[in-house]
Amino acid sequence: MAASDNKDNIINYAGDFRLKTCNIISFRKAEGSEKAFRANILPQTMTVSLIEDVTMPCINGSIDVADGQDFRTMLPLTGNERIELHVFTPGQPEIKYIEALGNTLNVYKVDKIRNSGGTARTQVYRIHFTSKEAIKNSITRISKAFEGPIENMVNEIVKDDKFLGSTKSLVVEPTATNTKFVIPNLKPFKTIKFLCNHAIAKNYTNAGYLFYEDTGGFNFRSFESMMAMGGHTARPITEAYAMQPASVRTPDKNIDVEKDLQSPDSYSFVDVVNTLEELNAGLYANRLITHDIYNKQIKTFDYDYHDNFGAYFHTEHEDGGKVTEKYLRPLVFLEEEKAFSDYPMAKLMSVVDTKKVHNDYEFTPPEDIIPHKITQRAQLANFHLLMTVPGQTRINVGEMISFALPDQRPVAHDEAQKLNPYYSGRYLLLSLKHNFDVVNQKHTMNIRAVKDSVPTQMPEGLEVLEKKEDKAEAISLYDLDELWD
Question: Which of 43, 315, 443, 468 is a plausible cystine mate for 17, CB 3.0–4.6 Å?
Fold first, then answer.
């Protein structure tokens, strides 16, 4: 919901934001009242940070305060407090954790306490907070049999008061699973992670789900659903970033805020290439051996990255559909027309696949989950784009963005600069950190994004390689020693 105040709907510059509420709700009662003692720390707040990550079940963050009132002792701050926070980019969806809405954040740590310097009594310290569900997870265990679709199990764990009891929204991607699990005294988040590992999407051929929280609530979905929608179309981007001059002006000399919002302050790439790690992780190829004790069968399943690439949606698309050959890892031949993906023994796995454990339900076949999940997770572990960009509260992890990076090769003065054919394109947001600088009234975001395909197909490797037939023989160390005699 956008703010109702007209001034709160107008963004004046890239990084503009409104911090409306920043309260600490104490565990103790207010004097002469049955309600909790509440302190407004907005005047003392220097910075607020908020972190979302598709690998984390809950959001977390921190508030840096310059405390001249000694709230730390007056409250006192013990790690049992709650925080109300209301902040947003003008005209965009609001980040709103308010007690009246049944939604607050929980303090769990206070550190970095120091004097601000000089003769003032002001102390500077950091208050760490997380979602209330993280606290509930720490004190709750599940010992229960679940049956039916996995998304229904997750919904029960998140919503039932016996478990997490969350009032937040939960977005679930329907699964193709109908099974039964007996959970033996696991905590809720660990139970959900277990269920994620056994989930198969209804509309996609991939396997393995993620459970994470963004500022809108909880999400239970697959990686592929972040790159596509409806099972048939590439997902549109949320924002298009491009390297361009800062403070771009409109034709009438006004600041073009929209263009500035799309201009990164900085960027870098990490873990772009790590072939050894990817080989050992099973990205290119892997082998799964299953042992069915009930039917007394042993089966072998080999996975080939290049052969299966076109079966899934990737960050790049072809007219909204799947791509077949825009591999991020090119088809490179090693010997006798064999590529990395022709060596499944690079990663060997074995599991017990027992049938008829439950009369009316069957576990998801491991060959439908493990090989696909192993290679997909490995694809998303490298080629990360790190950017610092102007902040926007409408952007969340799990969304698609694009990044236009000019090719760094020199060009003639009359020649247009082309985009990098491999580093430009579409990226998936993996993590996002909001930084609200209250002192300087500047909102920035640190984002980590990843791509698993390229806009322009990579060159194909040579099919015939020069090979040296003569091989050096082993040399005896003792023979070498005799040369010194």
Answer: 443
Q: Are strands 400-404 and 285-292 parallel, antiparallel or unpaired?
A: unpaired
The four Cα atoms 219, 225, 227, 231 give a dihedral, to 10 degrees, of: -150
* Pairwise CA distance, residues 157 & 155, whole Å: 6
Q: What are the Cα distances from residue 408, in Å, to 237, 419, 421, 427? A: 25, 9, 11, 20
| DSSP label at residue 309 | G
Question: Which residues is 330 bridged to in the sheet?
Answer: none
pLDDT for the residue 2? 44
The partner residues of 181 in beta bridges, in order of sequence, read: 146
Distances (CA, A) of 441 to 128, 134, 198: 21, 30, 45
What pLDDT is stored for residue 145 in this prediction? 94
Q: Are the beta carbons of 389 and 243 closer than 8 angstroms?
A: no
**Dihedral (CA of 134, 169, 52, 454) sign:** positive
What backbone phi and psi angles, to 5 degrees, belong to 348? -110, 130
286 vs 358: CA distance, rounded Å: 30
Residue 462's pLDDT is what? 67
